[in-house]
Design goal:
Elements: E1 20-24, H1 25-35, E2 40-43, H2 50-58, H3 60-65, E3 69-72, H4 76-82, H5 85-88, E4 93-99, H6 101-114, E5 122-128, H7 142-148, E6 151-153, H8 159-176, E7 180-185, H9 186-190, E8 192-196, H10 227-249, E9 254-256, E10 263-268, H11 272-281, E11 295-298, E12 300-302, H12 306-313, E13 318-322, H13 329-340, E14 346-348, H14 361-375, H15 382-403, H16 420-433, E15 438-440, E16 458-459, H17 465-468, E17 481-485, H18 486-503, E18 508-514, H19 542-549, E19 553-558, H20 562-574, E20 580-586, H21 590-606, E21 611-618, H22 628-631, E22 638-641, E23 652-655, H23 664-671, E24 678-685, H24 689-705
Helix pairs in contact: 1-2, 1-8, 4-6, 8-10, 11-14, 14-15, 16-20, 18-19
Length: 712
């Protein structure tokens, strides 16, 4: 089960020599892995590389034919540790996750992998979730690469380049005995294009042809002192020069010439397309990327190749470094290299471009215009370029003024989400018991930090909510409530939070949202799902895990039962019983459920079978228009409309067509003792004879009881 099926696209992974591959960047990466002869792949889902893992799962049968082992890991640390197979065996392997958060989780394994180095190529495909569409803290993975001596590829978003960097990345890893990261920003993941395919390769050692013996014992390959002292020297004295020599020889970085030879731009590969587009809009390039400004494109972001940098800058008066975020690692490194070589090219970077934030098309346009204004290259009217940027960007303030204030549109739970009722219950509980500290976590439930719930005092990472409440509990009178998803629970919450809480005999309340999937990343399966990629349920239960750890106070409550959930919460908050109190809030992810149910209903309708859909509605004549229901729900299907009663000016509540009939409206109205204006209706398709008979009887009764017009 995943948000998107790649079953059709997987066919393109079978293409052979000379055939043309069409598709998305993320699929091209998978094909490149197979062309590189990987023996194992794994990872943990997260934007923007969730689909890479989904593709791998959908391609599992095909990979099995090639002897490729697939592991859907329970977190990024377990994925990183998989690469240990490449330390002592000539096995190529690749793992994937969302960075920088996933890289944080994997940090220990990465350090201990990079220290001894690798024999078989080891590649980490990181989805760099940086910029305006990001869902995480804004940091870059560059620092990780630098500190651990892991080489960082940042390919230009162009399919042949991405595929080449995957293939060359394995050679680079093996040639320099270091792991390699391949960074993909969201646009690189979803860029579409073509490349000429090659045959898939079978690894010499794989599941099809396992080695007769394990690798021989070699203490030097353990990240243990004194080996680690040797490793540190190897990283600097051997692996780094080997990587730089490989990159030079295989031309991993690209130089694009231009006639404005006294200036230049050095850009990280992932940002190349934005630079190219900005140059085109300023009249400094055509729409095919042929630019007047020479460009040095760093498909290998780390390490830099000093000779190439110096050769590019020599003879240029001004060079712009395009590197998002802070610190300006590349700008500093290039300044140092040039000053050491006594090359007096003036380096521009932060200043022309902002110190923080994504370099969007708009930012890049202004940044390049600023650079041209300051550099004043020979043969170019710099003032005209600045005027062009002003004209291109000038319409925005006028458009903003014309449109007026646009209300913010924060993300929200899906219609009918099983997690929304839990926060409605928590809101009702707080009305009675007063406010409490709420320790939130990563996952869909973090939507409760937005209106109408606006709940949450901290988010410290995936599966960290209970641990984040440890020092709050003794310092605040009311019991903190920690909220964790089932994804976060298995990712590390069971150990980081539950085990630590029990070990320290702490107090506290934990709500585990059991929706059955890692929903926020696209409904992938996890240990407590009711099915797995192999079909059968994995057979691990949250309840059993908690009991086996020693949790005594444990309740499982259906999420939509708002009154029961509120009563259970109150009990957990008030009980004199010390220790951890866990409420498993049970309700299947509605998005996943709807995907399943819609397909089932469509099949039933086709077969002429009876299908019943539940809908909720509001009786206009009863609704008082106080909107308590909306304040306690926030469901996108619950909105307002003008009152049909001319004597009442307040709009009434209204349930629109998208309602999935989850029942929360009725539950909230009941639990909060709201007006009785909600009604539940059943929409029956392909009605049975009994349905038709009942319908006729009901219509008859209603018609009999309805007031009749009296002739005067
Ligand atoms: S994906 Fe599922 S769990 Fe997440 S908000 Fe939507 S319905 Fe809720
Ligand atoms: S029943 Fe209410 S809360 Fe549930 S989907 Fe319909 S409008 Fe939304």
């Amino acid at each position: 089960m995943a948000e998107r099926s790649f079953a059709k696209e997987v066919e393109s992974l079978k293409l052979g020599d000379g055939e043309t591959f069409h598709g998305e960047g993320i699929l091209a990466v998978t094909k490149a892995l197979l062309q590189s002869g990987v023996a194992y792949v794994g990872g943990y889902q997260g934007a923007p590389v969730s689909h890479l893992l989904d593709v791998l799962v959908d391609a599992e049968d095909m990979m099995a034919e090639l002897g490729v082992h697939l592991e859907t890991c329970t977190n990024e640390a377990s994925a990183a540790a998989m690469l240990g197979a490449s330390i002592g065996y000539p096995l190529r392997g690749a793992v994937t996750w969302k960075s920088v958060v996933g890289t944080n989780v994997a940090a220990d394994a990465l350090s201990n992998l990079a220290s001894p180095g690798v024999m078989g190529g080891a590649m980490i495909i990181i989805g760099e979730d940086y910029g305006e569409g990001a869902s995480i803290i804004q940091e870059r993975s560059y620092a990780f690469a630098m500190k651990s001596s892991i080489w960082l590829l940042d390919p230009r978003p162009d399919l042949p380049t991405i595929v080449r960097m995957v293939e060359k990345g394995f050679e680079l890893s093996e040639g320099s005995h270091a792991p390699v990261m391949l960074e993909l920003r969201i646009r690189a993941c979803h860029v579409t294009g073509t490349f000429t395919a090659k045959n898939n390769r079978v690894s010499a050692q794989s599941g099809l042809t396992p080695a007769d013996k394990p690798a021989r014992f070699d203490y030097a390959k353990l990240s243990h002192p004194p080996s680690t002292f040797l490793h540190e020297r190897l990283k600097v004295d051997e692996r780094l020069p080997a990587a730089q020599a490989f990159a030079r020889e295989h031309k991993l970085n690209e130089v694009f010439d231009g006639d404005l030879s006294d200036i230049g731009i050095i850009v990280l590969g992932g940002l190349y397309n934005t630079v190219s587009r900005a140059l085109a809009r300023l009249g400094l390039a055509d729409n095919f990327g042929n630019a007047r400004v020479p460009i040095y494109c760093l498909n290998l972001a780390y390490p830099l190749i000093p000779d190439e940098v110096k050769a590019f800058c020599l003879g240029k008066n001004h060079v712009l470094i395009v590197e998002e975020g802070s610190p300006d690692f590349i700008e500093q490194a290039i300044n140092t290299e040039l000053r050491r070589a006594d090359i007096q090219t003036r380096i521009h970077g932060k200043g022309a471009l902002p110190k923080a934030g994504e370099y969007t098309g708009e930012v890049m346009l202004r940044g390049i215009a600023n650079f041209v204004r300051d550099a004043r290259p020979a043969g170019l009217d710099a003032a005209a370029i600045v005027a062009k940027a002003d004209a291109l960007l000038g319409h925005k303030p006028a458009a903003t003024a014309a449109v007026g204030d646009i209300p913010p549109r924060p993300p929200n739970f899906c219609t009918g989400c099983p997690e929304r009722p839990v926060f409605a219950a928590l809101k009702l509980t707080q009305r009675e018991l007063g406010p409490t500290h709420i320790s939130t976590d990563i996952g869909c439930h973090s939507f409760a930090t937005f209106a109408p719930f606006s709940m949450g005092n901290s988010i410290l990472g995936y599966g960290m909510s209970l641990a984040a409440a440890a020092a709050v509990t003794p310092n605040v009178k009311s019991r903190p409530v920690s909220v964790m998803g089932d994804g976060g629970f298995w990712h590390n919450g069971l150990i980081t939070g539950v085990a630590s809480n029990l070990f320290n005999k702490n107090d506290g309340v934990l709500i585990v949202m059991q929706n059955g999937y890692t929903s926020a990343t696209g409904q992938q399966y996890m240990p407590s799902s009711l099915a797995s990629r192999q079909g059968a349920a994995p057979g691990m239960s949250i309840e059993s895990a908690l009991r086996s750890f020693g949790v005594k106070w444990l309740r499982t409550v259906r999420t939509y039962s708002v009154a029961k959930m509120a009563a259970t919460l109150k009990e957990a908050m008030r009980t004199a019983e010390k220790g951890l109190k866990v409420i498993i809030a049970d309700g299947e992810c509605q998005l996943a459920r709807q995907r399943r149910v819609r397909a089932e209903d469509a099949a039933k309708l086709k077969a002429g079978e009876r299908v019943v859909r539940t809908k909720f509605g509001v009786d206009d004549e009863i609704c008082t228009g106080d909107h308590s229901c909306i304040r306690l729900s926030g469901c996108p299907s619950l909105t307002v409309k003008p009152s049909p009663d001319p004597l009442r000016t307040d709009p009434v509540a209204s349930v629109i067509e998208s309602c999935v009939g989850c029942g929360l409206c009725g539950e909230v109205a009941h639990a909060a003792v709201l007006c009785p204006s909600f009604y539940r209706a059943e929409v029956i398709q392909n009605p049975s004879a009994w349905d038709r008979l009942m319908h006729r009887i009901r219509r008859g009764v209603i018609s009999f009881l309805s007031p009749r017009e009296v002739a005067v």
